[in-house]
Design goal:
Layout (H helix, E strand, L loop, with lengths): L1 H24 L4 H17 L1 H18 L3 H7 L3 H16 L7 E6 L5 E8 L2 E6 L4 H12 L3 E5 L5 H18 L6 E3 L6 H8 L6 E5 L2 H10 L12 E5 L5 H13 L8 E7 H7 L2 H8 L3 E4 L10 E2 L13 E7 L1 H12 L4 E5 L3 H10 L4 E4 L19 E2 L7 E2 L6 E8 L7
Parallel strand pairs: 3-4, 3-6, 4-5, 7-8, 7-12, 8-11, 9-10, 9-11, 12-13
Antiparallel strand pairs: 1-2, 2-16, 14-15
Helix pairs in contact: 1-8, 2-5, 2-7, 3-7, 5-6, 6-7, 10-12
Amino acid sequence: MKDQLDAKMLIDQMGSAARAAAAELAFAPPAAKEAALIAAAEAVWARRVEIMAANGEDMAYGAEKGLTPAMMDRLALDETRIKAICEGLRAVAAQADPVGQIIAEWDRPSGLHIQRVRTPLGVIGVIYESRPNVTADAGALCLKAGNAVILRGGSESFHSSRAIHACMVEGLRAAGLPEAAIQLVPTRDRAAVAEMLRAVAHIDVIVPRGGKGLVGLVQAEARVPVFAHLEGICHIYADGAADLEKARRVVLNAKTRRTGICGAMECLLIDRAFYDKHGAVLIEDLVEAGVEVRTEDDLLNVAGTVTAAADDFGREFLDMICAAKIVEGVDGAIAHIRRYGSSHTESILTEDDATAARFFQRLDSAILMRNASTQFADGGEFGMGAEIGIATGKLHARGPVGAEQLTSFKYLVTGDGTCRK
């Protein structure tokens, strides 16, 4: 009971401070937000040795907890990844400021002039696991969109997140912006998460970023609105009209580049026509690369494959494992994805424009690709500088959630003594 009371007091204090900061950020000059992010990037790079030392503590903690290799990869920071964090901060800083942008404007016969203008959401709560770079990405995007943010990193990334957060606060301080604009929950206590989910007086939206367990919990328990994706069950469909070499490159990249990210391919669908023409070459490539392919029927003839269980289709492995199946043409692929997909990302490999158009038209995942790796399902790769996550719902934000998606809008209506008849 005491832990609950302490957590409630903590989130109430952080929420009140965030609400006050958000009121200032709503009209903060774009130059100040840009300066804060550039200063934060400089601080991250200057403190990289300190950040890597903190990450070493987290890696030891993760190993002790028995995290999978894929999860350990998500957690790990080295100089290359820290450089990428700095580049992400600078990329967000360089973007056009979305706050105040006129989305649409028009005149009415009554004499009114109406504008729809972007405005910040207010206070955003971000709850995430493992990946410490989210501390910088989420902080940067929320700030760019004029929002205050309360960050709650995973227990595994506790030390790394604190070190990166200190750099974000240094940037705010350098630019003269309120330090409460980017706050990090200073405890591993899970009671703080529960309080964030109930903090309707302080937080306008929650963004969970992590595995199915975390996101499912947030969606089930939150009283605050949620932007979420439950799973990244990404499919690639190799059509009969696919270019073989393109297909081989894309499939290997989509599965093996980084297995622990939500854009990793989890299921390969092979058109019967592709199989008749090229055999099981895509499966052979995956097995040779060290992937455990869980499959059925003809594809089990490939040495190293294993029989798929009923729940292997529609499963997010986040590991060197994937499911595979032969389907009857693009309609067979569409039917399979509709049944087992999570509305995240699907890719078709084909040189046939009509088939690609049918795939794009008849599926409704947040991201659909052609002849490209699903690993591109990332806000940075979409030119957003960074992302808070990939939203698979259909309300407000969908796909990569960048600064623009972290705004709402208001109407500005101008008359000239105009009265309604």
